[in-house]
Automatic annotation (TrEMBL):
This is Alpha/beta hydrolase. The keyword Hydrolase applies. One of its GO terms (molecular function) is hydrolase activity. InterPro entries: AB_hydrolase_fold (IPR029058), BD-FAE-like_dom (IPR049492), GDXG_lipolytic_enzyme (IPR050300). Keywords: Hydrolase. It comes from the Bacteria. It comes from Robiginitalea marina. The keyword NAD does not apply. Residues 48-170 form the BD-FAE-like domain.
Length: 301
């Protein structure tokens, strides 16, 4: 976990994001409406895009989506996410894709094992904004016709890191959760190439984490697949988190892609929609207490 490794990882993630946005992706169909709503004032206004089927008057569960970009770049309405958001809405979910402050913009080259404070601050800023968006949605649940008892987190890359930390902080009664309503709890997490950063050793939960769906490539050079650790500081990736969940009898679904890299952060959002909807139906809505692992191995040509 050296400075150069982290810097290269962030740069690769940035380039990957910029390249992805330049491609052609599924548009927002006329059957889905989008409203942009401000939810917090920081140095600038933070907003969310709220998606639902046109004319939908039913109270529905809601997915809060957090975009990726190494806490340096990215935007809530990047077209690379359209297929994922469209699929969620068509399958009975409302979706809120949120802004958050990019805490490593101009600072990513300062991060290293002996200076993790910029990364810690960036994660906390993102989680703080995520919690503000959540509190806003709960406060407007009647107007937006969402079920506040069924709100789940989902994110890609830095957004997956934010989502995993959001659930960890909520379950561990972190000070940042004070903005959330009393008794509120997230009901699920979907993380595309995510990890948890810790300065106190492996992640531990005071209360059982929400059912969690993990996607990760075994050759990810940006967000660690297993862990990068020196003493008590480290990034704990999906493969490591799955071991923690398995040992503690927590519900989780985990899809590891052998040979794949950080492209899983967005590719899985288009290629694994069936797995996503199965998780939402069984682990979140039906509350089926399962642990599921699948290893995807490419066949030799």
């Amino acid at each position: 976990m050296k400075n150069s490794t982290l810097r290269i990882g962030f740069i690769l993630s940035l380039l990957f994001s910029l390249t992805a946005w330049g491609q052609a992706y599924e548009p927002l169909p006329e059957s889905i409406e989008k409203r942009t709503l401000p939810f917090a004032e920081r140095d600038s206004t933070l907003s969310l895009d709220f998606y639902q089927m046109v004319g939908d008057t039913e109270v529905r569960p809601c997915v809060i989506f957090v975009f990726g970009g190494s806490f340096v770049t990215g935007r809530r309405d990047a077209p690379v996410y359209n297929a994922y958001i469209n699929s969620l809405v068509r399958n009975g979910w409302k979706v809120a894709s949120i802004d958050y402050r990019l805490g490593l913009r101009g600072k990513y080259d300062q991060v290293g094992i002996f200076n993790t404070e910029p990364l810690e601050n960036a994660i906390d800023l993102a989680v703080e904004d995520l919690f503000s968006a959540t509190a806003f949605l709960v406060s407007r649940a009647g107007e937006l016709q969402i079920d506040p008892a069924n709100i789940i987190l989902s994110g890609s890359s830095a957004g997956a890191i934010t989502s995993l930390h959001g659930d960890l902080y909520e379950k561990n009664n972190h000070a940042l959760r004070a903005v959330l309503p009393e008794g509120f709890s997230f009901k699920g997490v979907i993380a595309f190439a995510g990890a948890i950063f810790s300065t106190t050793g492996k992640p531990e939960y005071v209360r059982q984490p929400s059912p969690t769906l993990l996607f990760h490539g075994s050759e990810d050079k940006v967000v660690p697949f297993t862990k990068r650790r020196l003493l008590n500081k480290g990034f704990f990736g999906s493969d490591f988190l799955a071991r923690v969940f398995a040992k503690n009898n927590y519900p989780y679904y985990y899809y590891r892609e052998i040979g794949a890299g950080h492209e899983v952060a967005t590719a899985a959002m288009m290629q694994r929609l069936g797995e996503v909807h199965h998780f939402l139906r069984t682990a979140v809505l039906a509350k089926s207490p399962y642990q599921l692992e699948a290893t995807l191995v490419p066949l030799k040509k």
